Amino acid sequence: MAEDALIVIDMQNDFCPGGALAVEGGDEIVPVVNRLIERARHVILTQDWHPPGHSSFASSHPGKAPFETISMPYGEQTLWPEHCVQGSAGADFHPGLRWTSAELVVRKGFRAEIDSYSAFFENDHKTPTGLAGYLRERGITKLQLCGLATDFCVAFSALDAVAQGFSTSVVLDACRGIDLNGSLAAMIERMRQAGVQVG
Ligand code: VGL
Ligand code: ZN
């Protein structure tokens, strides 16, 4: 039987106001996400989960500042403030998030040498997280995505989801973006072009 699932992306303290990589209004979506969770048949969460000294941190690259880009063996990488360090309070889910019904938590970005925006693949677009296989084994074919940040982890996850053959929608009211150099509008357009239902 075809099943559907809600995937809540990175609803963590560090992406909310007061956090290390705060997304404007990130906390405002908590009640909206909670409503989606209440209505969902199956709930899956992602959790950005970096070891100290992760290669996506500007502090790991002498002379580099957050939000600059560098060239990595797998391609261009934006550098970020240190965030979502494994086991830190910043990596915890927002205290208002009603996550207890979640059936799976996908941790990503745990390899020091590579970042992972998408819930499906690391930023080399090759190394899988295992999520696609998990969903297929469970007969889940339809996905609804929400969370933080619209133009990074939500968008990369949605693009990979459609490419993997899942029917995919993104609930914009339950997302907030970072918007680096116009990335928000650009990624929304890319998602629409790829066949993600963005509403
Ligand atoms: C994210 C930047 C770095 C996200 C994660 O969740 O969108 N963005 N790590
Ligand atoms: Zn990260």
Automatic annotation (TrEMBL):
GO terms for molecular function: metal ion binding; nicotinamidase activity. Residues 5-198 form the Isochorismatase-like domain. Pathway: Cofactor biosynthesis; nicotinate biosynthesis; nicotinate from nicotinamide: step 1/1. Its EC number is 3.5.1.19. InterPro entries: Isochorismatase-like_dom (IPR000868), Isochorismatase-like_sf (IPR036380), Isochorismatase_Nicotinamidase (IPR052347). One of its GO terms (biological process) is pyridine nucleotide biosynthetic process. Belongs to the isochorismatase family. Keywords: Hydrolase, Metal-binding, Pyridine nucleotide biosynthesis. This is Nicotinamidase.
